[in-house]
Specification:
By secondary structure, the protein is an alpha/beta fold. It is built from 20 helices and 16 strands. Helix 1 links the parallel strand 1 and strand 2. Helix 6 runs parallel beside helix 7 and helix 18 crosses helix 19. Bound molecules: adenosine-5'-triphosphate and magnesium ion.
């Protein structure tokens, strides 16, 4: 469970924050001054620190500096009674994850806490590349697989990590793009500098621009103080633009300027500010196709695609399936504190033959289900067949009425010369399935994404695309 340290001298504020943290399902630890807080950081390694600028004896910014010296990757959110622009800038410069002025909206604060924890997780837990050691004992995350494509990938990471080149990571959903981005960062010369992650889908379009570029006080109604954007925050370090294929065209134009001129302009700002950031980007869309459809700027595509890394779908490296299955089984048994029952040879065969449309993520989820439903027996062909792969409930051929309805619709469409038949149907199917999943989980997006075997951001894209609830 994540531990959040609340370093706040004011008892009432401290308790409010504590309640908010606990409500999010995290552990809260309190400190009233810098000594208590530093002791906590030193001995119990919290995952996030919330610190007041008024922290005695020398103030929150001094404390921030000390924390960043001892653990540069620990995310820190600074809170202050009223907004002082200079302090905001100073806090961000010293490496704060963000700066919040009181009073805060509980939902916004909660969301910020979650973002900071997620960002901390990305930066702090190491990604290891496949090595000879036992996979079962790997701490943190690991990129596994010895297939040809994975070996090529390790080489590519090795070649490019230590350079400042822009890298574009492409591949289907669940193939490991985020892991690769983290590995690139961790093996780079900027590994001890900021690593700022922006998910272009998870942030509403209207906020994405200010999130990335920041704004000046008075830039628009509601811009009551200056805000430093994520790009500036990443100065000296790395920014990871996840799901860049979904970036709106207007923001793509500003992004192009960043890549060409290595400077950012805050919204409402008059002068471009030079920044030194290394850019990593990822997408599960076919960007070249998006370019040809006019949804992605060609010039930006070329600027990003300096070093392309393509992650092949799991079905094209099925020899890696057994080692991955072992690894995920070991991981869930460890998490659940149960004995690892192992996998039978027949089950390995079925797993290897499966096409895994949801790629490695789907395999990981499948192993979890197999373990839970197998009740301590070795994972066998039966569990794999019925639980992991849903072979008896898939749409293919098992619902003749549905098949016939689709065929009839297609025949009609073809006869009447409709031009976008396939896209229309696929969109409709996607919309129906997504809304069913959301209904089933009472609107819980994380769980709905897991049910569907897609990532949360790609669920959000679809919710947005179809305007669902
Ligand atoms: N080669 C691998 N070895 C071990 N684990 C992997 C590997 N590839 C992916 N994973 C695991 O699979 C899951 C999905 O990976 P990740 O989130 O990096 O995918 P992604 O390509 O970013 O997907 P999306 O496009 O849906 O965001 C994660 O839990 C990750 O740890
Ligand atoms: Mg991803």
């Amino acid at each position: 469970m994540f531990r959040v340290l609340i370093a706040e001298p004011n008892g009432r504020l401290r308790q409010n924050l504590e309640r908010l943290v606990i409500d999010q399902g995290f552990r809260a630890v309190q400190a009233r001054n810098a000594d208590e807080a530093l002791a906590e950081v030193g001995s119990n390694s919290p995952d996030l620190v919330l610190v007041s600028v008024a922290l005695p004896p020398d103030g929150g910014l001094k404390f921030l500096t000390l924390v960043k010296e001892s653990d540069p990757r620990l995310p820190v959110i600074v809170t202050a009674a009223q907004g002082a622009t200079n302090e905001t800038i100073e806090a961000i410069k010293r490496g704060a994850f963000d700066y919040v002025t009181l009073p805060y909206e509980p939902v916004d604060m909660a969301s910020l806490i979650r973002q900071a924890l997620e960002s901390g997780r990305l930066v702090r837990s190491p990604v290891q590349l496949d090595s000879k050691e036992e996979h079962e004992f790997m701490a943190g995350d690991a990129l596994l697989g010895r297939s040809r494509p994975m070996q090529e990938l390790y080489k590519a990471i090795g070649r490019v990590a230590a350079t400042d080149s822009t890298v574009l990571i492409q591949g289907e959903s669940g193939t490991g793009k985020e892991l690769v981005a983290r590995a690139l960062f961790q093996h780079s010369t900027r590994a001890d500098k900021p690593f700022v992650v922006v998910n272009c889908v998870a942030i509403p379009e209207s906020l994405l621009e200010s999130e990335l570029f920041g704004y000046e006080k008075g830039a628009f109604t509601g811009a009551n103080s200056r805000r430093i954007g994520k790009i500036e925050q990443a100065d000296g370090g790395t920014i990871f633009l996840d799901e860049i294929g979904d970036m709106p065209l207007a923001i793509q134009a500003k992004m192009l300027r960043l890549l060409q001129e290595r400077s950012v302009e805050r919204i409402g700002g008059r002068t471009p500010l030079p920044v030194d950031v290394r850019i990593l980007a990822a997408t599960n869309r076919d960007l070249a196709q998006a370019v040809s459809q006019g949804r992605f700027r060609e010039d930006l595509f070329y600027r990003l695609n300096v070093v392309p890394i393509h992650l092949p779908p799991l079905r094209e490296r099925s020899e890696d399936v057994p080692v991955l299955a072992d690894y995920f089984l070991a991981r869930v048994t460890r998490e659940l504190g149960v004995r690892n029952p192992g996998i039978t040879p027949e089950a390995y065969e079925l797993l290897t033959a499966h096409p895994w449309p949801g790629n490695v993520r789907e395999l990981a989820n499948a192993m979890e289900k197999c373990l839970i439903f197998g009740r301590g027996h070795p994972v066998g062909a039966e569990e794999v067949g019925s639980l992991a792969l849903n072979q008896d409930s898939g749409p293919g051929g098992l619902n003749p009425e549905l098949d016939e309805a689709i065929r009839a619709w297609a025949r009609q469409g073809i006869a009447s010369g409709r031009s976008k038949l396939l896209a229309e149907m696929l969109d409709r199917v996607e919309e129906l399935i997504v809304s069913e999943a959301l209904e089933n989980t009472g609107g819980n997006r994380t769980r709905a994404a897991r049910l569907l075997g897609i990532s949360r951001p790609s669920l959000l894209t679809r919710i947005k695309k179809y305007g669902i609830g």
